[in-house]
Every structure is written in C-alpha cells, then in structure tokens.
Amino acid sequence: MGADYIPVGELSAGFGEHILPATDCLVGKKTELRYQWGNKATITFISAEALKWETTDKARREEFVCPYRAIMPRDGIYFVDFIAPRGSGESVSIILEVTRGIATIVTGILPTPVELMIPLIVRAKGRMPLTSVQAVFEHAAIDGPFSDTTPRHERTGDLVGERIEWVYSSKDAYEHIYLSENTYCWHCIAGNEKGLADTDRCFFYKIAERLYLFVWMEKIIPTLGVVIEDLDAMRSYGKIFGYKGYDTDGRTTNFPVGSYGKLLNRTEYDLTRLRAYK
Predict the structure, then answer these.
(1) What angle do CA 79, 85, 91 make, to 5 degrees?
(2) Which of 71, 105, 150, 219 has a Cα at 20 to 30 A from 120?
(3) What pTM, to 2 d.p., does this model score?
(4) How many CB atoms lie within 10 A of CB 117?
(5) SS3 state of residue 121
(6) Which residues contact 114 (CB under 8 A, 6 or more apart)?
(7) Chain segment 165-203, per-residue pLDDT in tens
C-alpha cells in the first residue's frame, strides 16, 4: 500500500525545525498600505505578537486586532503573516519591502465544502483551476500614494527548470521541480508523506536578486503554501495554511516553515532540435 495524503494539521509537527526566528523590529510602528486599485490599509504593530488591521475599500470598512508572525529574511524586507478573523478560511501574507517602499499582499482563501467537492473533470471542463484553494495577489505602496511609476514585485520565470531539494527537518525533505511559471512538481523524499508526489498550481514573484516569493496551491488536500526562497542562502521561509483535518469544519492550521535547499540540477530545452524530426 502506498503512502496516504495526510491533512495539513498532521504536517505541522515536523516543519518548525529550520524556521527563521520572529523579529520584533516592527513593534511600535504604523504602516499604511496604498493599494494599486485605490483602497488602503493601516497596520499597527502593537507588540511582537499582536497587530491592528484597519482597511477602507470604498464604502466598506474593516478593523480588527489579531495575532501575527513577522520575520526578516533580508535587511529591509519583512514577511508578515496572520489569519483574518473575518472567517478562519482566510490568511494574509505580506511582503513588506521598506527599502523600496512597496508591498505585495497575498490573501489565501480555503474552499467551502461545496467548492471542495467539485470533481476535477468538472473543473477541467469548466476551465476552472484544478485546485479549490484561491490566492489573491495585490500590490501596494508603503506610506505613500501608488502611482504608475511605483515599482512592484513582478512575476518571473527565473526558477523555471530548476530542481531543488528542500530539507524542512531532520526527517522531512521534499524536492521541487519548477516546470513553468504556473506549475511545479513536489515529491516527498523523506517524512510523513514519503513516496507522495503531485503537480500543482503555483506563482513566482521576484523580490530582489535571487530572492523570490513562491506560492503554491495543492488540489488533493486543500493547502496554501507561501514562502520566500533565498537562493543566495539556499533557504526558504514562510508558512503553510489549510484545514486541520480531512473535513472542512472551519478548524484551520497556519504554521511557520523553514528549510535548507540544495540545487540538484537545472533543465533547459533546446527547441531548435524539433526541426530534426521533420
């Protein structure tokens, strides 16, 4: 019998061994995000564990205080992550690059029970994403207006073709094969999911030289991963978000992850060879 797909709650036990320690550099600061579409949000970092979130979008206003976690993978670049209490099925991950005064906000949305039960063939027929997990990407300026000249973290294909081994703990290791700008393969080579592999939807954004935001959404077990991959340090830092168990009863888990990487190989295709087969 092969390995079983396990719920996200069971993954969290072994993935905290190589996480980056939380930073308190943001404590006491107030940051305003001006989104590209005109709405804005204000984050007040009350302590190292709690922030206040205020957002205004036309006639809609939202305000709450919640726990969060912040890390600093490079000087002037922060990864801030929290669960939005508007419903436990949403998480918010923010790349704050204070050196350039810009931010990328990733809102992850887990599926409802109805969405989760849509068969893959129905999704394919309706030209829907095969995964039921959603990720919304938004760009913002920090403490200033967003204009046509405001830089942003751009989509990239820099990692396409790379095969990297990521070691999350003394017993958990995966390899990633980055197939295209929207597709990657993961394969568990050690740990609870050993022997499992799949191909899932993903997104890559370039933050700085050899520093990337990598977001993936799994389709078998509804899972959202949001990590920063530093190819200079060969480290990754971020989080995994999903339902604790197989049922979607609202209980979620959102836990930090970190890993050490090793480049196994890089594949490049010489499409000019196709002419040889005419």
Answers:
(1) 35
(2) 105
(3) 0.96
(4) 11
(5) helix
(6) none
(7) 999 999 999 999 999 999 999 999 999 899 999 999 999
CB-based contact 91:107 (threshold 8 Å): yes
The stretches of the chain forming alpha helices (DSSP H) are 8-11, 113-116, 120-125
Q: Tell me whether residue 66 is exposed, middle or buried, using C-beta atoms within 10 angstroms of its C-beta: 0 to 12, 13 to 18, 19 or more.
A: middle
Task: Report the top-level CATH class of 8-267.
Answer: mainly beta
How far apart, in Å, are the Cα atoms of 102 and each of 98, 152, 177, 207, 272? 6, 6, 29, 10, 40
Among 158, 174, 170, 134, CA closest to 231 = 158
> Cα(128)–Cα(114) distance, rounded to whole angstroms?
15
In terms of C-beta density within 10 A (0-12 exposed, 13-18 middle, 19 or more buried), how is residue 41 classed?
buried
Q: Tell me: the pLDDT tens digits for 19-70?
A: 999 999 999 999 999 999 889 999 999 999 999 999 987 777 899 999 999 9
Sign, CA dihedral 270-273-275-277, equals negative
